[in-house]
Design goal:
ten-stranded mixed sheet, single chain, 7 helices, three-stranded antiparallel sheet, D-amino Acid Aminotransferase, Chain A, domain 2
Length: 259
């Protein structure tokens, strides 16, 4: 990360430790969406480059997670020159109930906000500050609106029975995990919509969850020491069920992607 948004475009994908990535098709599609916004040229044969590099990647260690998370993650970064770099790592364990602190969301000019780009240090810093304060994650606010998480998409279940997530048009990253489980959540009877998430909505929420390629689906219990709803409720249960189904069915090899 260099401080220049157009120095890199990247994604972090769940990896099985072999030749498969979780929802590879959705990650490559997001690469193209973000590349267009950043005026960034991607290699024509990007999937072939990535899967060839993956076949030579070393296993970074023994998995430490349980069945509701992927064993490994791999960061796929692409430079303007077309160079592709893969950085695998062991996925991390999380407590059964997560806590968060609030931080100011970073601001970028133009189309940088809401994309995975080369100036990601503010998100990394927010993550470290959360750890220093005894929390697992930072939730990022623009004034009184929740716009993102340092490594996650926050979703709340409002008192009206609808689940809401931050608007990508206001700076939130478009979540691949949410894209994977949206249908499962809605088929279980919980409508899910984007919205401007204000502090008052958070404080009255029935519950909150956070989503991510590494996190999977996790319950969020506190923000800045304030208890949020009743954790591990209906939203958590249906979101986790949808995620577990994806972990069983959504792994893709290059052949799957091309087929």
């Amino acid at each position: 990360m260099t401080g220049d948004p157009r120095s890199e475009i990247f994604t972090t994908v769940a990896w099985d430790g072999g030749t498969r990535l979780l929802a590879a098709d959705l990650h490559f599609a997001r690469f193209h969406r973000h590349a267009e916004r950043l005026e960034f040229n991607l290699p024509d044969n990007l999937p072939e480059i990535v899967f060839e590099a993956l076949s030579m990647a070393e296993i970074p260690g023994e998995p430490v997670v349980v069945e509701n998370q992927a064993p490994y993650l791999v960061k796929i970064g692409i430079k303007p020159s077309g160079e592709v770099e893969l950085i695998p790592r062991v996925n991390g364990k999380w407590p059964s109930l997560m806590t968060a602190i609030s931080r100011a969301a970073p601001l970028w000019d133009g189309e940088g906000r809401g994309t995975k780009h080369g100036d990601w240090q503010p998100y990394i810093d927010a993550r470290e500050i959360a750890k220093e304060h005894g929390a697992e994650i930072s939730l990022l606010f623009d004034e009184d609106s929740l716009v993102d998480g340092d490594r996650c998409m926050p979703v709340l279940l409002d008192s009206d029975g609808v689940a809401y997530y931050p608007k990508p048009s206001e700076g939130a990253l478009d979540s691949i995990t949410l894209e994977q489980i949206r249908e499962g959540i809605e088929s279980a009877g919980i409508p899910i919509r984007e919205a401007r998430l204000t502090l008052s909505m958070l404080l009255r929420a029935s519950e909150m969850v956070v989503l991510g390629s590494g996190l999977g689906v996790q319950a969020l219990g506190e923000i800045d020491g304030r208890v949020i709803g009743q954790p591990h409720g209906r939203l958590y249960q249906v979101a986790l069920a949808a995620w577990m189904k994806r972990l069983q069915t959504a792994w893709m090899s290059l052949e799957d992607l091309e087929g």
